Amino acid sequence: MKFDLSDDQALLRDSTRDFLHNESPLETSRQIMEHDARGYDAAVWMRLAEMGYLSLLTPTAAGGQGLGAVELAVVLEEMGRVCFPGPYLDVVLAAHLLAGADANHPLVGAITNGSSLVTIARQDTAFSGASAPAVAITHAHARGVKHFVPFAEHADALLVVVDDGVVFCRSPFAVTPMPTFDPAQRFCKVTFDHPATPAATLEGLRLTDQLAAIGASAMLLGIMSRALDVTLGYVQTRHTFKRPIGAFQALQHRLADMLLKVESTRSAVYRAAWCFDAHDPDAHLATAVAKAYAGDASRLVCGEAIQMHGGIGFTWELDLHFLFKRAKTLEQHYGSTEEQLERALAATAY
To answer: Residue 196 to residues 119, 143, 159, 171, 314: CA-CA distances in angstroms?
Structure first.
């Protein structure tokens, strides 16, 4: 299948790249990541809302853009290139999940206009070791604990995954920040003892989880692309034995492997996004494959980028370590590589 972006999608890519280059380049974002307690720039966040980025997936019936997985992948690939800090993917997914169940829910507009921060509290089996949601609902009341809830410390509400669906709980929450080596991805342990209102079904959650895998894969693609570009620039300017190190065949082979991983990930990501938008019956398989492959590929590409920079590759001053840390974080969340491989195997079992 030959796939290319439409004119509108290409315009979205170019305008997003220009916006992020001007408003949130990596050299600016790292200051926010290191020193802002929220982990993101509130002013840039409001500009994203004003430009319609927070309502990207929200149906037009709910006042949103009504765009699809391909557009989400386009935006998040660009965000990955600048290692954009903050809960963008989490918030967009929460708005999509909530609007999919009730387009008239009053919180949908508050999420998309940037006045309320809402994320999804899953039970991350890759970290907690639990095989089922750790929050129980009794008489419309949620009690229990969730781990690795994104940006829960500043959330106005959470969509909480339980055994038979998703429920809605309002702040305040009892939160304990959890350690992470990516300073722009904030996670918390949340203890629930809240009134709970049904918010979405498990089917809606399944579709949102597929979008999460596509979005995380696209961000990994952007991270890999940036790491490769930075490395290509370095090997052309770093000289040894009176030659640029990129002239040595051993490094050329490694760069070729990096390019192969990047372009293979690109094919997997946009194949998965197309399948989702086209309601292809293999969409669940394609999304699992994209996320699993992107996780492994990003580890190799970012690792090689650091190695090929030599001693300075390990220094704090170089931006590469932010790319590596974000890649490792995304590899484990939104369905870890191991979980996605299990889903892919289940989808192909006869």
So the answer is: 15, 9, 9, 11, 47
Whether 16 contacts 75, CB under 8 Å: yes
> Where does the pLDDT of residue 117 fall: very low under 50, low under 70, confident under 90, or very high at 90 and above?
very high
Q: pLDDT by residue (tens digit) across 298-307?
A: 999 999 999 9
Rounded-to-integer distance, Cα 84 and Cα 230, Å: 17
Q: Which domain holds residue 130?
A: 118-200
* Count of domains forming the chain: 3
Q: What is the rounded CA–CA span in Å between residue 29 and residue 17?
A: 15
In this structure, the answer to whether residues 232 and 314 fall within a common structural domain is: yes
Termini Cα distance of the chain: 26
Q: What is the pLDDT of residues 176-192, one digit of tens each?
A: 999 888 888 899 999 99
DSSP-based three-state secondary structure for 217: helix
Same-domain status, 40 and 70: yes
Q: How far apart are CA 101 and CA 145, in angstroms?
A: 24
Q: Is 34 left (phi over 0), alpha (psi -120 to 50) or beta?
A: alpha
Dihedrals phi, psi of 239, to nearest 5 degrees: -110, 145
Pair 31, 74 in one domain: yes
**Is 127 among the domain residues?**
yes
Residue with tokens 């001053």: 317
Integer Cα distance of 24 and 43 in angstroms: 11
Residue 324: strand pairing partners = none
pLDDT at 346: 87
Query: Which residues fall within 8 angstroms of residue 232, CB to CB, at 6 or more apart?
Result: 246, 255
Retrieve residue 199's tokens: 């918010």
- Dist CA 114 CA 108 (whole Å): 10
CA distance 151 to 86: 8
CA 205: distance to chain centroid?
Answer: 16
